[in-house]
Amino acid sequence: MNDELTAYALPILQGWIADMSLPTRIRRLTGQAIRLDPRLPSDHEAAGELLGLTIAVSLDIFRRRALAGTGWHPGHGAHAQTYFLRRCLMSFPREHQRFTREQRPTSTRETLSLHQAMHLPETSPIGHPEDLALARALASQALSLAPSSQLCVPQSHPVPPSR
């Protein structure tokens, strides 16, 4: 059944990306407004990857809900294909957000100097894990680029000689 659902949903979703009607359809169904990258309709490889992720997630949810008895039921309401296509529309915003986040070029991230990295705000372990990971990555990058002579911690007050 997975192959049939995929074969049904994929060309429809591709068409909705091509004519840029997918965001409107998602908003009507879920109330969520998404902004589709205008390059996506012409970038068939990226669109195919994004739709593949969306369909895979939707198939998993479809299967889990069917096994739990909370999803689609034969003879009750919509056909399986229609139900599945709606599930894809509900899954798309989250997968689109993940996909666009992963597609951002790394060159747009700001590179910090060693001095800037030393003044990054402290990150609480209770805070956002992504902030901690980014702060650590930036500090590591700055330290890896600095000559070893700059890695000594300057002392603000001279240490008195030992007696």
Describe the fold and architecture:
This protein starts with a helix and ends in an 18-residue tail after the last helix. Helix 1 packs across helix 4. The radius of gyration is 25 Å and the shape is elongated. Helices cover 60% and strands 0% of the residues. About 5% of the residues have low confidence. The chain folds into 2 domains: 102 residues, no CATH class; 33 residues. It is built from 6 helices and no strands. It has 163 residues and is mainly alpha-helical. The longest helix has 25 residues. 15% of the residues are buried.
The poorly predicted ranges are: 150-157
Shape: elongated
> What percentage of amino acids are in beta strands?
under 5%
Domains (count): 2
Distance between the termini: 83 Å
Q: Total number of helical segments? A: 6
Fraction of residues in helix: 55-70%
Secondary-structure class: mainly alpha
Q: Rounded to an integer, what's the Rg over CA atoms?
A: 25 Å
Summary keywords:
single chain; 163 residues; mainly alpha; 2 domains
Structural topology:
Elements: H1 2-18, H2 22-30, H3 44-68, H4 80-103, H5 114-118, H6 129-145
Helix pairs in contact: 1-3, 1-4, 2-4, 3-4
Task: Describe, in short, the structure shown.
This protein is mostly helical.
